[in-house]
Amino acid sequence: MNQKNSLDINICFGEQKNPIDLFKEWYEEAKKSEINDPNAVAVATSDNNSIPSVRMVLLKDFSKNGFIFYTNLDSKKSEDLKSNPNASMCFHWKSLLRQIRLVGKISEVSSDEADKYYNSRKYGSRIGAWASNQSKILKKREDLYKSIEKFKKKYPDTGVVPRPPYWSGWILKPKEIEFWLDGENRIHERLKYVITENGEWDKFLLSP
């Protein structure tokens, strides 16, 4: 990276060498300005026929190890990931006019990690994980309500609801992260980080 390019990057995005640190800075700002769900993120997957699919989920944790969300392991997104672990995430914070894109591979979180998060959820959400056959055809809404009541009777103790074996989390370990800033006349500012073979991050500006 030449000196001028380095100066340009620092002016626009700061001096963070690790994109996770920069993500944390932007995320903290988003939590102050976004009206709802600053942790909302679009997750794009594709099946074994290369047919893409995208949906919004909620980011529940992140670190240098990756970005985590939870779901039913029989859902469409999970079925895609079982056959093709390559995926992408996109955060868009309209209040900040900022966007972050990540590309990498996804794997399942550990059982201990899934248990810890599941047990932190509200009682109704834990029951819902049992009651809903996510992404499967629902003949009528009443069937879902009946299923919810059935599992409330099965697990009446609000403090003891085991995690369903088909419910867990996925973690995306990024190999590329791009930060995007809105610019006047659509001359946006873009900074891309790419992981190198030795595990270090390289960064460079992109044209809008």
How would you describe the overall organization of this protein?
There is one protein chain. With 208 residues, the protein is an alpha+beta fold. It has one domain: Roll (Pnp Oxidase, Chain A). 32% of the residues lie in helices and 34% in strands. The protein has six helices and nine strands, in the order H-H-E-E-E-E-H-E-E-H-H-H-E-E-E. It has helices at residues 3-13, 19-33, 76-83, 111-120, 123-131, 141-154, and strands at 40-46, 52-58, 61-63, 66-72, 86-93, 98-108, 167-181, 189-195, 201-206. Strands 1, 2, 3, 4, 5, 6, 7, 8 and 9 form a nine-stranded antiparallel β-sheet that branches. A hairpin with a 4-residue loop joins strand 5 and strand 6. Helix 5 packs across helix 6. The longest helix has 15 residues, at 19-33. The radius of gyration is 20 Å and the shape is elongated. Residues 1-7 have low confidence and may be disordered.
How would you describe this structure in keywords?
Pnp Oxidase, Chain A, 208 residues, single chain, 9-stranded antiparallel beta sheet, alpha+beta
Q: What share of residues are in beta strands? A: 25-35%
| Strands, count | 9
Question: What would the principal axes of the Cα set say about the shape?
Answer: elongated
In DSSP terms, counting alpha (H) and pi (I) runs of 4 or more, how many helices? Answer: 6
The profile of the biggest β sheet is:
9 strands, antiparallel
List the helices and strands and how they pair.
Blueprint: H1 3-13, H2 19-33, E1 40-46, E2 52-58, E3 61-63, E4 66-72, H3 76-83, E5 86-93, E6 98-108, H4 111-120, H5 123-131, H6 141-154, E7 167-181, E8 189-195, E9 201-206
Helix pairs in contact: 5-6
